[in-house]
Design goal:
Length: 451
């Protein structure tokens, strides 16, 4: 029976689910997984909020996948830069791209480049210890923070800004983040959406978490009177119904006079300009909206009425966006890699014989972690059907290429050493782990046992 070799670029949930599905095949298939960071798991490690530790336990199932004898992990290898996609397709029967959506959508309004204007993903990556973001600077020395967006990430950012560091010190948030947050002078945190309460992207559980932060008030800046179409949306969706119920409960809750901070939930506002004082952010100008359209097709439309809101630091959280991978077709409009059932398509619509795609870079940034499983199954089935007709043996090993390029990769065994070290360091201070946040420390641990 023919043996096959498949490369997977990326090591987040969609990548591991793809590997899992490959190993279910009756074929003998070797899987090599490539990751630009020294550590695996993608947004599970670098995106899930530090105070949501239970969600991170899913990594144990990925460890089981990685224990397969035909699996290899190559961390600290940036495909598209230090190693090209063509160099991989020369050495594998197929390459599956699972690089996610790595940046934020832009507001595209005047003043967006002001000092104090940040993407939410930059902040999330920073407090989660992503090596590429540890030099980022977030000035929390003033009063007012504004988060544009009301999805999961926006709620995470709001919650991290609002919580006391005594609570956060029990998580795997970085020491640097703790130090900055400990000295925060924020008193007002605004989480603002362009649509109404019935269209808020967050969930009841997330709203409830905000409402139960110790010594923090939550204020709903809306009368919660639903239109006929809003009512129809609520009747049709348990998520909408539970959100409205939770918002109603929050609105009815009395404020604490002694609260350290106040979270303001605001709706029907679209940012149209960031007003600067010199180069620094000072205010945000919003245009008020109203919902228009039939049930299921409501959209926020501008009213021509504007308000200004003082803002000392801004986090833009209006959705993730995929970025191109050198050597691979890319659709700029959807910010995804064009494909059919997971097989990458050339600009002329013809299939790329060896290239496949899964996860957010395939379908866009939607769904939860588990959504990637069915997505990856579709891609792998398409991939296996394609390579079954291949009879060419590939003998060259990627390890030789890495050695030739003088790239020191991180194996999964190396990762387990790092993992054990981080957990031991965290245990000393009452945390789940103390993350290593730069590659020099990683190699120091692997070489000497200390960072």
């Amino acid at each position: 029976m023919m043996s096959y070799k498949i490369a997977i670029i990326g090591s987040g949930p969609s990548a591991f689910y793809a590997a899992q599905e490959i190993f279910k095949s009756e074929q003998t298939i070797a899987v090599d997984m490539f990751e630009k960071l020294p550590t695996p798991y993608g947004l599970l490690r670098g995106g899930v909020a530090p105070d949501h530790q239970q969600m991170k336990t899913i990594s144990k199932s990925y460890d089981k996948i990685a224990s397969h004898p035909n699996f290899r992990f190559f961390g600290n290898v940036t495909v598209g830069e230090s190693v090209s996609v063509d160099e991989l397709t020369d050495r594998y029967h197929a390459v599956i791209i699972a690089i996610g959506a790595q940046t934020d959508r832009q507001l595209n309004i005047p003043g967006e480049d002001a000092i104090g204007s940040h993407t939410a993903t930059e902040f999330v990556a920073w407090y989660n210890g992503h090596p590429d973001y540890q030099s980022s600077i977030f000035d929390l020395s003033k009063r007012s923070a504004v988060i544009i967006g009301q999805g999961n990430v926006a709620v995470d950012v709001t919650r991290i800004l609002a919580k006391s560091t005594d609570e956060l010190k029990q998580t795997d948030i970085t020491n640097q983040a703790i130090s900055i947050l400990e000295n925060s002078q924020l008193t007002d945190i605004y989480m603002i959406g362009r649509r109404g309460p019935a269209q808020a992207a967050c969930t009841e559980l997330e709203l409830k978490e905000l409402a139960h932060i110790h010594n923090v008030n939550v204020q709903v800046h809306d009368d919660l009177v639903l239109s006929e179409n809003d009512q129809l949306e609520m009747d049709a969706s348990s998520k909408v119904r539970k959100n409205i119920q939770q918002l109603t409960t929050i609105k009815a809750t009395g404020a604490l006079d002694s609260a350290r901070k106040t979270i303001h939930l605001m709706f029907y506002l679209t940012p149209v300009e960031i007003i600067k004082n010199g180069q620094n952010i000072q205010k945000i100008r919003f245009e008020k909206n109203k919902m228009q359209g039939d049930f299921g097709h409501q959209k926020a439309v501008p009213t021509g009425e504007f308000i200004d809101l003082d803002c000392d630091i801004l986090f833009r959280s209006i959705g993730y966006r995929g970025v191109p991978l050198n050597g691979v077709p890319f659709d700029q409009k959807s910010a995804t890699i064009p494909n059919q059932n997971g097989q990458v398509l050339e600009d002329n619509g013809n299939p790329c014989q060896k290239l496949f795609v899964t996860g957010w870079i395939k379908r866009g940034p939607s769904g939860v972690i588990g959504t990637n499983r069915s997505d990856s199954i579709e891609t792998v089935r398409q991939c296996l059907a394609s390579i079954e007709s291949t009879s060419i043996a590939i003998d060259s090993d990627v390890q030789e290429l890495l050695e030739l390029k003088n790239i020191r990769s991180i194996s999964f065994h190396d990762w387990k050493i790092i993992d054990e070290y981080e957990q031991a360091e965290g245990k000393r201070v009452g945390k789940p782990r103390e993350k290593l946040t730069n590659i020099d420390d990683v190699f120091n641990v692997l070489n000497n046992g200390v960072a």
